[in-house]
Specification:
single chain; about 140 residues; mainly alpha
């Protein structure tokens, strides 16, 4: 088998994982996409190891050893990542990444120093809506 076949498959897997990391909002789907990217790297390591061992006639197989370490690290990463996602889901009620940007402290929508809750935010929101209505008319 040629080296191009696993390299193309690996590139497709990596691009699919990269799209999943960049486009998805669910934390579990992002973790699955990272796993796809790691599997693409593993496929490349094994394919190039086999190709180089045929060319150099050596039996070290360092690519396959690195693949085993990568698989072990990926398993630990998924275990810890899922534990964190489940803990955050229990506390916040969602696994949406956009809604989880402030995990250490709650974000005050009115801002610090407001006398009345929501007074400045509501007037700014109403003036913004009025400007949008004037712009569309």
């Amino acid at each position: 088998m040629h080296l191009a076949y696993p390299a193309v498959l690996s590139a497709l897997l990596f691009c699919t994982g990269l799209y999943g990391v960049l486009a998805r909002r669910n934390a579990i789907l992002v973790l699955m996409s990272v796993e796809l990217m790691l599997n693409a790297v593993n496929l490349n390591l094994v394919a190039f190891d086999v190709w180089l061992s045929r060319a150099a006639e050596e039996t070290l197989h360092s690519g396959q050893a690195l693949t085993l370490f990568t698989i072990a690290i990926a398993a630990a990463e998924i275990g810890i990542g899922l534990a964190i996602v489940l803990a955050v889901h229990r506390n916040r009620g969602t696994a949406d990444i956009d809604k989880l940007r402030d995990t250490a402290e709650r974000h005050d929508p009115d801002g610090p120093g407001s006398d009345r809750p929501g007074s400045d935010a509501r007037t700014a929101e109403q003036s913004g809506e009025a400007q949008k209505a004037e712009a569309t008319a």
